[in-house]
């Protein structure tokens, strides 16, 4: 749906709800006797037209935070670390999606998942080795990598186990799909570096190895390496965070998170995949017939409503914007449909422009909540025409033994008191 | 220039330089005897094929940083705070542009400028009053503001005094134009809120007031308020940082930074500008004939090469990517031209897509540095056709009494030893 159409729909919603419903919506409180005067009087509280405490004395001086931090009032907006899962050196921390706006995840809240703790790597000592079926095996310093022609692209990253198929299901958007973030990445197209070494005939896969204690290793098809894969050193302008692979990671946009190998130290060009631990005992999908899907690279189209979402509460009837995020490993999001009547009917949401390939896409739908219980949900359709399935549809095909690639629709229940909870929990 | 054209040019540069020049470029060091073997042997150092120290023991566990921070190896990448200017409560901190990639500025490094210190505002107590020439004066809580239909947009912000016209000029890109950053902002279109209050006939300006100790006040033309102005509560996904106006700021994309009033508490709709301190004694431009330009809202088209740039050093002859940023308050960047011969000739740089209106645009040009002294510079052309001027052209018209709106081209000198410095300093 175009932004023009939305403007029209918002105007209509405004005529119908903002004004006729009076103070029910966001319209704020009418101020008696202030039209055109604007005089600011003192009367003992912080509300306009009075002068709040924080205007009466100078604020904090410069220099106390040469690298800034959020307001102390936002101290609850942190990575969501499970209190029940073991959280030692094989750990995950989720992005608090329900507290965020837009599509960029700030670096401090980017999700993390690691298998041997987060290494502390001196970039001056870090090396990337490129060898195997190449004409010239090479070793690169970080300075070497940074001298290649660069690119910047906004892409999402998602863990393939996001969320699990079986109860207990999470209560919040972050509990369910918080192993998901999106950033502007800068680095070198991998194909540029491969061309420098010269691929030999028969080269079909590249084995990527991380410099962490788990030596995480994955096999990547050569087609992806020659397409949009990147060697990345920066996220959202600054250098990678340690949890995201400082000083160098592989980025394979749209592929499951663990294939975007962090702390990248080695690329070996080979003819066959290596069948590493992370592509045999882990990151394969047991099916109901006893077989297992392997090399399930692509993260399929998916979406989630982040506001209103589980754990939040609507405080008043009337206008309520429904907003969330959609993404697909196969390319651009084409459409997001939202239902506010437990799946009976669906409306097109507005997509925030620009819609970028393999990036989060923010969607929005103006809604009037009449104060009665409701179930709301979103489903994403990507540019291939693929439609995000229901959990029942997904389980019917995949069973519940798999841990990965659950891209089901996730509905939220809104109670009459405004409380929002997981409708499938 | 299209990305396809660049790919071609990079391939040509590669054929001519990466390979024929051997190790001169980024090609890294050839590894003898490793072709196809890939065996990792130990021999007492951290370089491949050896196992570095940080792979031999588990890394840092989860949970020590619920809100993340950069690597300790990046501790020098901080806001650039002048040691010579008074830095008390009327202060500025600059973004380290020469250390950043892409177009997004991470929130921890976003530039700041304030006139009465940074207030600590409780969002539950903050109010925005909208009054003056409106049908219904209104007071909004932050919850009210967040219930309106939202938008997210990527826009730059720049202080109008960036840089000064007279020596001493800064040594680095940050010294010169570091009062510049770019983020994805989320908030409410101001026109939506104005429509809620109902503008009266004759409403021509809106006076915006901040809730800081300076009560910073600016008059904004009503046309801008009804165009792309926003009430913003989030930057790069999370809530505004205190230094950027937490919990609410005005965003007037493309207008000088101080008009994007932070800690926004009051909007008064009026027929005439108020001629506040910040639009009379400050933020006006004294001209050579004794008059002063006032209400110089728009930040004109501008660009700067960030790599190589002042304070950096080229470590080897051969391939060198030239990259930088360009921006215009009037809309999209149409073209960036780069000269590597002290302005004798100019080449089109590649613009990173998507090119967004009133946002930073990253540009790049592949270059072969032959090891002799050179002067490099960039000039931006925006979609209106406006061309970024030289400092001499600008001073010829404006003189040197003005402090604001210096959007001159800024060349860098590269010495034979690779050291980069300000060519006009």
Description:
Chains A, B: Residues 297-409 form the Moybdenum cofactor oxidoreductase dimerisation domain. Chains A, B: Its cofactor is Mo-molybdopterin. Chains A, B: Keywords: Metal-binding, Molybdenum, Oxidoreductase. Chains A, B: This is Sulfite dehydrogenase. Chain A is an alpha+beta fold and 425 residues long. The first copy, chain A, has two domains: 97-291, Alpha-Beta Complex (Sulfite Oxidase, Chain A, domain 2), CATH 3.90.420.10; 302-422, Immunoglobulin-like. Chain A has helices at residues 3-19, 142-147, 173-177, 190-197, 222-225, 391-398; strands at 29-30, 91-93, 112-114, 127-132, 138-141, 151-158, 180-189, 205-210, 217-221, 230-235, 238-239, 249-251, 264-270, 285-286, 292-293, 302-307, 318-327, 333-339, 347-348, 350-351, 361-369, 374-382, 412-414, 420-422. Chain A has a five-stranded mixed beta sheet with strand order 5-4-13-8-9. In chain A, strands 6, 7, 10, 11 and 12 form a five-stranded antiparallel beta sheet that branches. The longest helix of chain A is centred in the N-terminal third of the chain and has 17 residues, at 3-19. The first copy, chain A, is globular. Residues 14-27 and 32-44 of chain A have low confidence and may be disordered. The interface between A and B is large, with 140 and 140 residues.
